[in-house]
Structures are given as C-alpha cells and as structure tokens.
C-alpha cells in the first residue's frame, strides 16, 4: 500500500496536466526527486508483494532478499527527503521570477518553458510570478514583441477562464488595461493550490518510512 501511494504521487507529478514540473526543469535536482519517488514506489510495491510470498511460503532466502532491498529503499528515501529539505529554497519567488524574466518567449508554443507558463497562467487565471509587472523586465519577451505589448496574451481574462475561453478584449489586455487582464501573480495562486498536496505528500512519505522501520 505504501509503494502504491508513492507510485501514484510520482505519476501525478510527471503527468500533471498543468505542466508545473516544466517550470522548474532548469534545475534537474527538482525533477530527479519525482523520478526517485516513482522508482522507489514501484520497487516498494513489487518487494512488498514478494515479501508476502516469502512469508506465506516461509522461504528464508526470499525474506532475506526482501529485507535487504527494503533497507536500501529506506536509505534512498531518507536521502531524497533530506535533499528535498535542503534544496527547498529553489522554489522561492525569486527563483521563479528570475527564470521567467530570463527565458519567457511569449506565445511561442514551440518553446517548452514558455508554453508551460502560458498553460499555467491560463489555467490558474494569473499573470507572471508576482503580477503583470514581471514582463516589464522579461528581456526576451520585450525583444520579440518590440515593446508593443505590456503583457502576453496568456495573461488576458477569458470567459470562461480556460484555454478555449473567449478573450474579453485582446487589444485592451495587451495594452495593460486592468479590467481585461489577470492581475494576481501565479506564485501566490499556485502556492495556495498545491500547499495541501505538498503536506499530503510529506505525510505519506513519513508514514511509509515509519512502516518500513
């Protein structure tokens, strides 16, 4: 059961439709944690099954194999948890702001980073990391739009607020008119949305470690 929980969380992180993981793809350490979670969950699920078989058959060799691998997994999970705690500062507001202003290319959907940010801003009805003012300092975005647009189209308000929603006024939005764009920054919105899931994932990880002990 513990392995199945970790496996499910790992899959959710990797296939999350909002593409949130791509935003931090510039830092491989953050993505590596998801793959470790996925691998450990799969191994734990398999070994739990083998352990049950060994217990039923009373096979000492199989049980010893089970114990050694559980110990290895336990140490790997503990190491991953420590690394996640140490490098948690990589998820700060400043980190996201720096990455956005440096790499964002507007409506260029061929660029994974930009396409992911556009998806996030449309899905959550937000704009930039702190707000629309972030795009004043986005050098690549300013260059590509020749300083004609204050914000990208993804920041514009839609009805309903989905990718297929109709823009209230594209022209007024691109000019930075408050009534036609989403003013709230994505950092606050995403933090509030994922906060519960982060605590849930942490609680499940601690629970699995305790069961393994």
Automatic annotation (TrEMBL):
Quaternary structure, from the entry: Interacts with ORAI1; this interaction regulates ORAI1 exit from the endoplasmic (ER), and/or Golgi, and trafficking to the cell surface.
Keyword line: Glycoprotein, Membrane, Transmembrane, Transmembrane helix
Location (main, coarse): membrane
Protein name as annotated: Tetraspanin
Gene: Tspan18
Keyword Aminoacyl-tRNA synthetase: no
Record-stated family: Belongs to the tetraspanin (TM4SF) family.
Pfam families (alphabetical): Tetraspanin
Function: Plays a role in the cell surface localization of ORAI1 and may participate in the regulation of Ca(2+) signaling and the VWF release in response to inflammatory stimuli.
Highest taxon listed in the record's lineage: Eukaryota
InterPro entries named among the record's database cross-references: Tetraspanin/Peripherin, Tetraspanin_animals, Tetraspanin_CS, Tetraspanin_EC2_sf
Subcellular compartments: Membrane
Membrane topology according to the record: Multi-pass membrane protein
Transmembrane spans: 31-50, 62-87
Cellular component aspect of the GO annotation: plasma membrane
Keyword Secreted: no
């Amino acid at each position: 059961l513990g392995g199945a929980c970790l496996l499910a969380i790992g899959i959710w992180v990797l296939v999350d439709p909002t593409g949130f993981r791509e935003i931090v793809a510039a830092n491989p350490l953050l993505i590596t944690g998801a793959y470790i979670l996925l691998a450990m969950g799969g191994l734990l699920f398999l070994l739990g099954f083998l352990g049950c078989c060994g217990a039923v058959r009373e096979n000492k060799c199989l049980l010893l194999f089970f114990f050694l691998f559980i110990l290895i997994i336990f140490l790997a999970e503990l190491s991953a948890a420590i690394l996640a705690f140490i490098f948690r500062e990589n998820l700060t507001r400043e980190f996201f702001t720096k990455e956005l202003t440096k790499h964002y290319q507007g409506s260029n959907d061929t660029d994974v980073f930009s396409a992911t940010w556009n998806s996030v801003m449309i899905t959550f009805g937000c704009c930039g990391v702190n707000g629309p003012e972030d795009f004043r300092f986005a050098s690549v975005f300013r260059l590509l739009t020749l300083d004609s647009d204050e914000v990208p189209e993804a920041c514009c308000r839609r009805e309903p607020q989905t990718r297929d929603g109709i823009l209230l006024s594209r022209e007024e939005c691109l000019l930075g008119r408050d009534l036609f764009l989403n003013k709230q920054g994505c950092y606050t919105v995403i933090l509030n949305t994922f906060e519960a899931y982060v605590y849930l994932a942490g609680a499940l990880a601690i629970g699995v470690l305790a069961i393994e002990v």
